[in-house]
Amino acid sequence: MSFIRDDAGRVLNDVLVYKTGQQVVVNQFSELVHYLSDGTMRSLVLFYACMDVLKSGATLLVDDIERQLDQ
Question: Which end of the chain lies in a sparser environment, N or C, as judged by fewer CB atoms within 10 Å?
Answer without folding.
Answer: C
